[in-house]
């Protein structure tokens, strides 16, 4: 059954909030860096093997900014397909330019609203990792509805993840972390895990906050079932198993 919320026009959201590039911007993006991909038509899901030109575990960096985490992580993991999604066009363009300059063919960049992207473009049970790094906390109570982490969004995360895959959330805001723990904790299909120190490269904001001596809160939830990463067949994952 088609999700009616995915049938809106791509060039406009509520209160003028941009969901995905307008037709005019689409045309101008044709000459942008090669890691850039265009949003599919409404009602269409992305085919990851077509997007990346190979079959490998897909990692989503949602709210990727200028790509500091996506690019560093992709260098560590050449056997994974990295999809960086950013709502602000100029930041996304910079991420794509940097990926092209570094020759990272397994990194793709999409300019799109994060919630819309996850709900409308991502096939169910197709994602190995989702990284949510320092999303805008919208601390004022009247702005609470603008926060990314909501029960509906968390449900979309669970639907997108492969069994055995995980979602990772990092923030500098204690109240937002507590809300995220509450929302993700309600999902029976998710199990919390402890993040090992040094497992992931720091994002731009994480580097800034830690340098200032500010606290950073982090959590990982893994979808129950499936296999662990080290158990994935090498032919599928492109990951060396030692």
UniProtKB/TrEMBL annotation:
Listed GO MF terms: tRNA (guanine(46)-N7)-methyltransferase activity
Keyword Disulfide bond: no
Keywords from the UniProt entry: Methyltransferase, S-adenosyl-L-methionine, Transferase, tRNA processing
One Gene Ontology CC term in the entry: tRNA methyltransferase complex
Pathway: tRNA modification; N(7)-methylguanine-tRNA biosynthesis
Positions of substrate binding: 140, 172
InterPro entries, per the entry: SAM-dependent_MTases_sf, tRNA_(Gua-N-7)_MeTrfase_Trmb, tRNA_methyltr_TrmB_bact
Residue positions binding S-adenosyl-L-methionine: 61, 86, 113, 136
EC numbers on record: 2.1.1.33
NCBIfam families attached to this UniProt entry: tRNA (guanosine(46)-N7)-methyltransferase TrmB
Family of the protein in this entry: Belongs to the class I-like SAM-binding methyltransferase superfamily. TrmB family.
Designated name of the protein: tRNA (guanine-N(7)-)-methyltransferase
Taxonomy of the source species: Bacteria, Pseudomonadati, Verrucomicrobiota, Methylacidiphilae, Methylacidiphilales
Gene: trmB
């Amino acid at each position: 059954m088609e999700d009616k919320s995915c049938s809106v026009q791509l060039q406009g959201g509520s209160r003028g909030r941009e969901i995905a590039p307008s037709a005019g911007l689409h045309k101008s993006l044709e000459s942008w860096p090669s890691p850039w991909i265009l949003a599919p038509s409404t009602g269409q899901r992305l085919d990851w093997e077509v997007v990346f030109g190979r079959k490998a575990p897909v990692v989503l960096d949602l709210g990727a900014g200028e790509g500091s985490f996506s690019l560093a992580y992709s260098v560590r993991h050449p056997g994974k397909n990295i999809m960086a999604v950013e709502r602000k066009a100029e930041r996304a363009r910079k991420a794509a330019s940097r990926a092209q300059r570094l020759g990272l063919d397994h990194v793709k960049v999409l300019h799109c609203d994060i919630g819309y992207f996850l709900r409308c473009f991502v096939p169910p049970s197709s994602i190995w990792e989702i990284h949510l790094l320092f999303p805008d906390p919208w601390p004022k109570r009247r702005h609470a509805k603008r926060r990314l982490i909501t029960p509906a969004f968390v449900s979309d995360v669970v639907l997108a993840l492969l069994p055995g895959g995980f979602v990772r959330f990092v923030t500098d805001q204690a109240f937002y972390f507590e809300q995220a723990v509450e929302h993700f904790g309600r999902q029976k299909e998710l199990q919390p895990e402890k993040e090992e120190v040094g497992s992931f490269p720091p994002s731009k904001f994480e580097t800034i906050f830690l340098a200032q001596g500010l606290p950073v809160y982090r959590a990982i939830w893994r979808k129950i079932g499936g296999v662990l990463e080290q158990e994935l067949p090498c032919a599928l994952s492109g990951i060396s198993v030692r």
